[in-house]
Amino acid sequence: MDLGIGYSPSETPRALARRLVEHYEFGTGPAAAVTRIATAEERLRYARTPGEITPLAADLRTARQALRATVSRGRRLRATLLPASTLLRLRGAGETVLDAFDHLETLRLWPRRRPDTTPAGDRDLTSTGSR
Description:
Largest sheet: none
Radius of gyration: 30 Å
Number of helices: 5
Mean pLDDT: 82
Helix content: 55-70%
Low-confidence stretches: none
Order of helices and strands: HHHHH
Structural class: mainly alpha
């Protein structure tokens, strides 16, 4: 996401890994790392008991380096300084704040005044100080 590589929320980790490996033509090392990450993610998402998952720090580093090598320097710089994933979280927080202000606008601190239902001819205008 931060590097501008699109994905669909309905895409399974395995399908995303396959698409990345095929589209960016990773070598055997990065392809294996992406596959191990996808397998671990699927186990964590879908397995009743995922079992023991081996540490993936080295695989994550390898996959990240392989993905960064496929994009331009400008895109890498933007991903480092203004990552889209962080900006989406900030946008969500901003929307929450704006929703709270919208809610405050609908609150009434005082009850509404009842409209005067007395016919105009029956009103006592002397009590209000009017002529």
